[in-house]
Amino acid sequence: MTTSKNADRAKVLAEALPYIQRYWGKTIVVKYGGNAMTSPELASAVMADIVLLGLVGVRVVLVHGGGPDINDMLERLGHEARFVNGLRYTDQETMEVVQSVLCGKVNKNLVASVNAHGGRALGLCGLDGNLLQARKLDRQDGCDYGLVGDICEVDPSVVNDAIEDGYVPVVASVAVGVDAAPGTVYNVNADTAAARLAAGMGAEKLVLLTDTVGVLEDPDDPSSRIPTIAYETVDGYIERGQVTGGMIPKLECCRDAVEAGVARAHIVDGREPHSILLEMLTDDGAGTMVL
């Protein structure tokens, strides 16, 4: 039995070798959220994946949101969370909570977690070095979203510097407002922030951790996962109703990232332990890849 298990382990390592060689020295941007962020076991697996990838020469950047923690703090303060068309309406008080929670508690907890798994992490946010710059979101739908921003510029210098110094950059998704008074901070979608940062860095991969197995051929059949789709076909999946709800903006982020030069973008099931490694270093993968 022990010999059989060792043979299985050797097979896994042999299968991973060509992928490790392919991605050595390349940049991947991982957007961290969903169940992978709230479950201690899954969170530990994600941190272990990130540290392992760094050890085999992959340049990893972690981008995060933190909706549940923001909601908890707003509730403690007696400030009701409000959403408009699926986006958090962000007034000034909410923005102060978002900035405090994302750039403070959540970001530093993630830094500590990466470090605890043997890595070297550095906490950043979109304000550092004007990393993420945004204008007030205007969807031309007549709705006001408050201090929600639409990223218009990315300067990845501070992230590249951190990587060159041997750190895993951990980036909170807030942005510098460039169309308002100095000091204005915008709340930005973490998926979008990860996609724009991946494009700005010329990343090899964008990985979005979600709470689904990926894009499905039959939305009612979890076993019908589509491993690979071309970015030109994304709109068709949406129009046919194969992708609905919160998966639509995630798939659009993948499409936009690939259009902007990212080689591959992945929607990965964050509920599966070590799903990042499974998607990157195995033949079968663990989600849907857009290329």
Taken from the alpha-carbon principal axes, the silhouette is globular
Order of helices and strands: HEHHEHEEHEEEHEEEHEEHHEHE
Total DSSP helices: 10
CA radius of gyration: 19 Å
Distance between the termini: 40 Å
- Total strands: the figure is 14
Architecture blueprint of SSEs:
Layout: H1 2-23, E1 27-32, H2 35-38, H3 40-55, E2 59-64, H4 67-76, E3 83-84, E4 87-88, H5 92-116, E5 121-125, E6 132-136, E7 149-154, H6 157-164, E8 168-172, E9 174-177, E10 185-187, H7 190-201, E11 205-210, E12 228-229, H8 234-239, H9 247-259, E13 264-269, H10 275-281, E14 287-290
Parallel strand pairs: 1-2, 1-11, 2-8, 5-8, 6-9, 11-13, 12-14
Antiparallel strand pairs: 3-4, 6-7, 9-10, 13-14
Helix pairs in contact: 4-5, 7-9
Task: Describe the 3D structure.
The chain is 42% helix and 21% strand. 46% of the residues are buried. It is α/β, with parallel strands linked by helices and 291 residues long. Strand 3 and strand 4 form a beta hairpin. The model has no long low-confidence stretch (mean pLDDT 92). Helix 4 (67-76) crosses helix 5 (92-116) and helix 7 runs parallel beside helix 9. The chain is globular. The chain has ten helices and 14 strands. The strands form three sheets. It has an eight-stranded mixed beta sheet, sandwiched between helices. It has a four-stranded mixed beta sheet with strand order 7-6-9-10. A two-stranded antiparallel ribbon has the order 3-4.
